[in-house]
# Entry
Amino acid sequence: MIVPAWNEEGAVAQVVSDVHRCVPGVPVLVIDDCSTDNTVLRAREAGADVLPLPHHLGLGGCVQAGYKLAFELGFDYVIRVDGDGQHDAGDIPRVFERLQTSGCEMVIGSRYIGGVAMLETGLRGLGIRFFRAVLRPILGRRVYDPTSGFVGVNRAALDVFTRSFPLDYPEIEALVVLQRRRFRFEELACKMHPRRTGRSSITAARSLYYIFHVLMGVLINVLRYESRFHRKPKGG
Amino acid sequence: MHSLLQITTVLSICLLLMVFISVRRAHIRVEYSITWFMASLVMLLLSRARPLLDYATRHFGIPDTPLTLFLTIGSIFVIMFFRLSTIISSLRDDNIALAQRVAILEYHIHTLRERE
# Structure
């Protein structure tokens, strides 16, 4: 289990405890994106391993660091939940089971299928509808919750993500990265709670920038010169 | 037009001096200073070569000589900014990969120490 966290001292301990309770014995790695509060301390107190980043990389860089470490340590499956406590740890066993049995490279915990939650009104809902429409022809199928951070991947997807993972707003672009490799994904109905503490980094004012940024990222990933995916890290 | 060329000359000399001082103080690396030296030299050359500007204006059918000067200088800087953006992008990628590697290596060291 990986949990990206940035200034989540109010929620991260509960997230780690919930994961330990729901999937006992599964290692939990909190990737701390250079928090200025006590996130690292709270996560360690709750029994998680912590990967503290030397400086703030943003969500994509933070998640990719976790994927890289999990890949190096030889894990076959990695499930990511956010450090703000919005994802229900009780859904983790179902995501893991689906990941093992479906043969898909990625399983997404989705709020918007199975009547779990209604799509929000306002700019956020509009943005999700927009990206559903953009992704449908690219992915060749409908995706209900393209912005979900509750994601499980197998080792094949992990291998790809260690080399190529979007850095700023990764969820939507990551789907396109996998699609280019003809990898499959499934969505599974999952519950979503309100944030325990703190605020989302995507405020109303930043939503338009988010939409433009992600749209550019999607288009560039579709058109990207393939050899860049396979660029080996320098010196390695 | 004459005063515009004079101002461009002064600006290009100022730019040349700034780049030179920055290189001497190691505020800018030599490989990146070359682009700026080239740009300021082209600006200086254009501002001192009125016949060349007039020729280019006629040749490309530009309505005005000052416009040729601005188009040329503008193009140079757009290319330079693009080049610098590619350098910054590459450096950012490297920087993120390096930060991730440092964090992972520190994690391994921490794990090994705990085992000992």
